[in-house]
């Protein structure tokens, strides 16, 4: 019985940890499908966390999720104006956005709350416990005791799959990520598509950040994004740029993180950091083709010709 | 549009190769023109690509657009497709002006272009590529229109474009890719179909299949523009043909009125191809051009000259570049002191031959023996020959960085490189910048001089020059040709020179012996064939007197 | 948008570009500071005093903090010069630090004459090894190096975490850090009484050596040629680009690996989690500001070192949070990018279609 309870709580924590990763990664997937690799995603996450916190203090946790997404989107817009509109190098621009976001969120946070070190208490988004289903053994809590953001992530996967592979705009977006020449020859506006895709990705990353502050911790701390944006980029690779793949990869990263906490509690001598490194190693292996062909969109990171 | 011309009277059977009807399009002359260009000019920087060109395309005709590389064919096609805005002049599609609307408007007016380098998304399936270019495949809410797939398949069947629509395009062969490209263009209503050098990627036996498709397309009322530089192909397929030279229209003729000789003259710009009196042989002592046996695979002018062994030797070499340009089972020997002229219409394998001789392209089959250092003036001087951000001296260093003469211990001796570059700049009369200036600052012609000057430095044993004078003015042309001629005679051990050119004058002026490149093979001139007419015939590979190469095997 | 005269001037005098970018950064920073209720002039003055006010502040603050940025900045500059987008300096730095510490701790009996070179060699090798994985994936499989070098960073980070908790943890077993390295492995201070160590001189020497290599040797010429155009390198230079790309990865990895170990041997004397606050990433800004020129990396790194050192003073003396500095670093990058784009926009406009 103890084992089952432990497994159940492990899964609950794994899914919870996977949610922000999945949100950010699904957004990044859309962005990369359009040919934009946004290393500044980390910036969107941290602004989302701070924006979410400020929004929640002003108008409640639900509004916080909205302001978080908006802040993340605005960060990505700044990134896209440089990297797509001005056609500056995507990697360098993204690095700047991440660095600057980590800095300026700290500035805003300290300006608003001071550098007292006292933990901020935020109103949190409630967890929805689905009656009956949440009571199922093992998987019940993991699946049916989550906040709304988990459902957003879950529903986004099929929605994005439908959008990308079944609609005219999805086709145009993927064309912008595969060949700007062909997309332009087909009359598509590559710059506009890429900016919109990057901003969409930023909004989701912002929502992921808001999840961190308003669901996961109920507080804001400087640098609390803790590399989630970078992880999302790895997750997109491991998920092979496909919605369900990305969702599964996010869950895998979530499990690795949960396992780390679980092992740490049980036995400090276990090499848990290696579990954290494992998903990255597997992402590299995926790129090297160990699990079949996995290729980034052909025009990823390339000039937009704006 | 598809199906609209079902009641159209059809030609009986296949289109015959020789007996052209007339230049008359099949539709009535009163129908609006499919496309009309009026006084169109377009320049790129200092280069005038199109100069005051008029062009008319009738519905239902196949219109061949001929000209050498750089004549302005592709520019004209791109202007018509709305991909380039003309500096001056007017473009009308189906009677409606295409004004600054760009590619989108052109597509809406019914213009479709099949690019030389396909504009397909390689990882999309054939059907996805068709969809990307056809808004008509979607409902207003962005979902796939019901029945569109069936319509595309029907259209493909109707035009004889059998192609697998559900495989990624990158997994298809060249023929299938081209079919997707054409299908993509024709899936919607199409008034004008432009094909830019569509045959370069095809094996000879595949070309007739393409032309059969085009005939069906034209019969349905679409005006087809066939951009090409291979005369025989245009003569086989086109109802009318227009020749461009140097950005200007030289002539437009219906097929019945066109002769090969007349078209060749128009393309290469000689006062008349029959004018054999201008043939100059600088080296009467040179190896006689007619010694090589017709049909002999080894194109060797020197016979078995023991005293002067070949400096470069290709034996039954097959090679190709990713774009499909290739040489097939080709043999060639080059000896010191001779200039071997390779004539031929561009795109017949010259690029690959040059790259193999320079040691940059490895052969698929056959034996290649070349010197360690080869001078090579490549065709694409600006993209491949120069780095615009480097100084002239640094660009010259491309030829010198490996040489011990320009090293000082581990260091590159920039002083010596600079002196050599400065000498080269002076010798080639490069204007607009010195050895220390960025090469990108120079004009196109002067950039070419830098490349040519650098490659001459490398040419102690072998020089491969691809149309070395193209883009130079008259004075610079004469100078460069003089240098090359002198190089072959200078000193005790002059280099061997391979001169690849599409300019017959250049070849006749400089070459000691002449070979003609056709479809990846070298044809020797027949006895006493050092005559523009004979060369022209070989270039076209349309004469019966020359050995017709067997069909190229498809890779 | 921009007056043509400015873009023409920026094109004509490339050195004007970093200056313009820094001015733009200062202007935006001043505006933001004012917005945040600070007095920009006073803040800047404090910052400059904090970084350059006394010899000690300059040597033990600014230059000390510039050292890892100098080395990682060189690693990035060399890679980018050949258009190898190595954003894995952070990981290579960790790999180098770990290898150096491992050798120093495992060879305790060795004397300084042996130990220090051995550790430096180990760090260089480890950095090269860390760069070799993305290099192999790029050259053999055509996998772009941006994502792979980024992923390798995290592998290195967690590997470091594992090692300092496990096999390399200090003998006491209290903190997640290694034992202190033996004195023989220390990089000695340059001036008695300051913290500035020999590592800074190594950085200067490497900058000079890389500059010589890039500009004066055939190999460096080939590296720059590959960075300018792989096609032109192969057609005009008649050499294969792949070995040059390999060389570049390895050189970049070696320098970044040294950066990590030099920080440990000169400053921290131990390896622990979070050794680097992101030098490998800031290095991109340093290299960019230096226009990928090894010698200009020196002042660029000193500038960022000064920002870092002055940031502390700013917080202590002017009450402006130190985190401002990270924001300012980002503004520098964006300004450099925007200025370069302004200069390029018109250069391209004339030539092609």
Query: In terms of per-residue confidence, which ranges of chain B show pLDDT below 50 for 5 or more consecutive residues?
Result: 1-28, 271-303, 542-555
What fold name stands as the CATH topology of the largest domain in chain B? Answer: Rossmann fold
Kindly state the number of beta strands of chain B.
22
Structural class of chain B: alpha/beta
Strand content of chain B: 15-25%
CATH architecture of the largest domain in chain B, by name, is 3-Layer(aba) Sandwich
Number of domains of chain B: 3
Sheet having the most strands of chain B: 6 strands, mixed
- Please name the fourth-level CATH homologous superfamily of the largest domain in chain B: P-loop containing nucleotide triphosphate hydrolases
Offer a few descriptive terms.
heterotrimer; B: 555 residues; alpha/beta; Rossmann fold; 6-stranded mixed sheet; 16 helices; 29% helix; globular; C: 353 residues; mainly alpha; ABC transporter involved in vitamin B12 uptake, BtuC; disordered C terminus
Map the helices and strands:
The complex is a heterotrimer of chains A (306), B (555) and C (353).
Chain A: H1 2-33, H2 41-59, H3 61-85, H4 90-113, E1 127-129, H5 139-144, E2 145-147, H6 148-166, H7 168-178, H8 180-185, H9 190-217, H10 228-238, H11 243-266, H12 272-287
Antiparallel strand pairs in A: 1-2
Helix pairs in contact in A: 1-6, 1-9, 1-10, 1-11, 2-3, 2-4, 2-9, 2-10, 3-4, 3-9, 6-7, 6-11, 7-9, 10-11, 10-12, 11-12
Chain B: E1 35-44, E2 47-57, E3 62-66, H1 73-80, E4 88-93, E5 96-97, H2 102-108, E6 111-114, H3 126-132, H4 148-159, H5 174-186, E7 192-196, H6 204-219, E8 223-228, H7 231-237, E9 240-245, E10 248-254, H8 260-268, E11 298-299, E12 310-320, E13 326-335, E14 339-343, H9 350-357, E15 365-369, E16 375-377, H10 381-385, H11 392-400, E17 407-408, E18 411-412, H12 414-427, H13 444-457, E19 462-466, H14 474-487, E20 496-500, H15 504-510, E21 513-518, E22 521-524, H16 532-540
Parallel strand pairs in B: 3-8, 3-9, 6-7, 7-8, 11-13, 14-20, 14-21, 16-19, 19-20
Antiparallel strand pairs in B: 1-2, 1-4, 4-5, 9-10, 12-13, 12-15, 17-18, 21-22
Helix pairs in contact in B: 3-5, 11-12, 11-13, 12-13
Chain C: H1 4-12, H2 16-35, H3 40-52, H4 55-81, H5 89-106, H6 112-141, H7 145-165, H8 198-216, H9 218-228, H10 230-236, H11 241-268, H12 279-289, H13 294-318, H14 324-351
């Amino acid at each position: 019985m103890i084992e089952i309870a432990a497994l159940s709580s492990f899964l609950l924590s794994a899914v919870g940890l996977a949610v922000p990763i999945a949100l950010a990664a699904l957004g990044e997937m859309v962005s990369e499908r359009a040919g934009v690799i946004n290393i500044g995603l980390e910036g969107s996450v941290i602004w989302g966390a701070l924006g979410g916190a400020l929004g929640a203090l002003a108008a409640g946790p639900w509004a916080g999720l909205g302001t978080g997404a908006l802040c993340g989107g605005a960060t990505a817009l700044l990134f896209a104006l440089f990297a797509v509109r001005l056609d500056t190098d995507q990697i360098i621009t993204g690095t700047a956005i991440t660095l600057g976001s980590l800095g300026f969120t700290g500035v805003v946070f300290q300006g608003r709350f001071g550098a007292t070190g006292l933990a901020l208490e935020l109103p949190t988004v409630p967890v929805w416990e689905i009656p009956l289903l949440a009571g199922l053994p093992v998987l019940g809590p993991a699946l049916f005791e989550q906040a709304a953001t988990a459902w957003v992530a879950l529903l986004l996967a099929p929605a994005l799959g439908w959008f990308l592979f079944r609609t005219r705009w999805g086709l145009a977006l993927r064309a912008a990520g595969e060949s700007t020449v062909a997309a332009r020859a087909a009359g598509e506006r590559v710059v506009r598509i890429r900016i919109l895709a990057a901003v969409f990705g930023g909004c989701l990353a912002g929502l992921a950040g808001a999840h961190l502050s308003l669901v996961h911790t109920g507080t804001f701390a400087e640098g609390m994004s803790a590399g989630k944006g970078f992880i999302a980029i790895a997750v997109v690779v491991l998920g092979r740029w496909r919605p369900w793949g990305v969702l599964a990869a996010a869950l895998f990263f979530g499990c690795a993180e949960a396992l780390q906490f679980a092992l740490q509690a049980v036995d400090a001598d276990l090499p848990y950091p290696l579990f954290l490194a494992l998903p990255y190693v597997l992402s590299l292996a995926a790129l090297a083709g160990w699990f079949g062909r996995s290729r980034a969109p052909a025009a990823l990171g390339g000039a937009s010709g704006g | 549009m598809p199906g609209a011309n079902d009641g159209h009277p059809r030609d009986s059977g296949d289109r015959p190769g020789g007996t052209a009807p007339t230049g008359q399009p099949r539709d009535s002359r009163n129908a609006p023109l499919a496309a009309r260009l009026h006084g169109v000019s377009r320049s790129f920087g200092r280069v005038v690509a199109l100069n005051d060109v008029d062009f008319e395309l009738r519905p239902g005709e196949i219109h061949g657009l001929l000209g050498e590389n750089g004549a302005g064919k592709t520019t004209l096609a791109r202007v018509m497709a709305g991909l380039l805005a003309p500096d001056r002049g007017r473009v009308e599609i189906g009677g409606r002006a295409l004004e600054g609307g760009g590619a989108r408007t052109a597509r809406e007016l019914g213009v479709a272009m099949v690019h030389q380098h396909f504009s397909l998304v390689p990882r999309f399936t054939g059907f996805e590529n068709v969809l990307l270019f056809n808004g008509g495949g979607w409902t207003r809410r962005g979902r796939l229109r019901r029945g569109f797939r069936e319509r595309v398949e029907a259209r493909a069947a109707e035009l004889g474009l059998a192609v697998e629509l559900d495989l990624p395009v990158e997994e298809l062969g060249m023929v299938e890719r081209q079919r997707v490209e054409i299908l993509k263009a024709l899936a919607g209503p199409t008034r004008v179909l432009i094909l830019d050098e569509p045959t370069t990627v095809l094996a000879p036996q595949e070309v007739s299949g393409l032309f059969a498709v085009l005939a069906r397309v034209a019969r349905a009322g679409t005006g087809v523009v066939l951009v090409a530089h291979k005369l025989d192909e245009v003569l086989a397929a086109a109802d009318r043909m227009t020749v461009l030279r140097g950005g200007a229209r030289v002539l437009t003729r219906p097929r019945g009125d066109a002769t090969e000789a007349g078209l060749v003259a128009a393309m290469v710009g000689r006062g008349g191809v029959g004018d054999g009196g201008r043939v100059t042989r600088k080296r009467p002592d040179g190896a006689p051009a007619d010694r090589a046996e017709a049909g002999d695979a080894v194109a060797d002018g020197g016979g078995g000259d023991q005293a002067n062994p070949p400096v470069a030797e290709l034996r039954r070499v097959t090679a190709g570049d990713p774009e499909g340009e290739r040489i097939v089972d080709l043999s060639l020997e080059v000896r010191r002191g001779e200039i071997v002229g390779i004539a031929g219409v561009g795109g017949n394998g010259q690029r690959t031959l040059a790259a193999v001789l320079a040691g940059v392209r490895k052969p698929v089959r056959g034996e290649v023996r070349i010197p360690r250092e080869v001078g090579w003036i490549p065709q694409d001087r600006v993209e491949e020959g120069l780095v615009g951000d480097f100084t002239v001296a640094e660009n010259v260093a491309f030829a010198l960085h490996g040489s011990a003469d320009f090293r000082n211990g581990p260091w590159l001796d920039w002083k010596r490189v600079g002196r050599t570059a400065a000498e080269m700049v002076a010798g080639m009369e490069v204007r607009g910048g010195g050895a220390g200036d960025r090469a990108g600052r120079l004009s196109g012609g002067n950039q070419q001089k830098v490349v040519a000057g650098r490659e001459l430095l490398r040419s102690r044993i072998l020089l491969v020059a691809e149309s070395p004078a193209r883009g130079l003015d008259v004075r610079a042309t004469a100078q460069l040709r003089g240098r090359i001629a002198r190089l072959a005679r200078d000193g005790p051990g002059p280099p061997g020179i391979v001169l690849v050119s599409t300019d017959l004058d250049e070849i006749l002026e400089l070459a000691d012996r002449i070979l003609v490149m056709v479809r990846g093979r070298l044809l020797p001139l027949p006895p006493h064939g050092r005559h523009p007419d004979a060369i022209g015939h070989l270039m076209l590979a349309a004469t019966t007197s020359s050995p017709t190469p067997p069909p190229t095997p498809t890779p | 948008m921009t007056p043509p005269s400015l873009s023409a001037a920026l094109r004509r005098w490339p050195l004007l570009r970093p200056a313009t970018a820094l001015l733009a950064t200062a202007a935006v920073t001043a505006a933001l500071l004012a917005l945040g209720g600070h007095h920009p002039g006073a803040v800047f003055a404090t910052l400059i005093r904090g970084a350059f006010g006394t010899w000690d502040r300059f040597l033990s603050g600014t230059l000390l903090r510039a050292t890892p940025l100098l080395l990682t900045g060189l690693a990035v500059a060399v890679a980018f010069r050949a258009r190898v987008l190595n954003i894995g300096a952070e990981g290579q730095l960790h790999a180098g630090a770990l290898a150096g510490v491992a050798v120093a701790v495992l060879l305790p009996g060795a004397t300084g004459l042996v130990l220090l070179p051995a550790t430096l060699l180990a760090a260089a090798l480890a950095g090269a090894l860390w760069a070799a994985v993305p290099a192999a994936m790029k050259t053999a499989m055509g996998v772009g190096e941006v994502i792979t070098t980024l992923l390798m960073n995290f592998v290195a980070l967690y590997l470091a975490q594992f090692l300092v908790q496990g096999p390399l943890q200090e003998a006491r077993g209290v903190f997640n850090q290694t034992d202190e390295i033996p004195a023989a492995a220390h990089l000695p201070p340059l001036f008695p009484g300051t913290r500035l160590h020999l590592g800074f001189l190594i950085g200067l020497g490497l900058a000079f050596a890389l500059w010589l290599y890039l500009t004066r040797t055939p190999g460096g010429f080939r590296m720059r040629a590959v960075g300018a155009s792989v096609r032109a390198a192969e057609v005009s230079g008649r050499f294969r680009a792949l070995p040059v790309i390999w060389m570049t990865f390895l050189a970049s990895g070696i320098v970044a690996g040294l950066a990590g170990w030099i920080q440990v041997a000169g400053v921290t004397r131990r390896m622990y989690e979070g050794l680097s606050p992101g030098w490998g990433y800031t290095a991109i800004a340093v290299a960019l500001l230096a226009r990928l020129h090894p010698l200009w990396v020196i002042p660029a790194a000193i500038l960022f070192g000064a920002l870092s050192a002055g940031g502390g003073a700013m917080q202590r003396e002017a009450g402006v949070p130190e985190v401002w500095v990270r924001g300012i670093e980002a503004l520098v990058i964006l300004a450099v990018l925007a200025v370069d784009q302004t200069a390029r926009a018109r250069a391209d406009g004339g030539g092609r279609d």
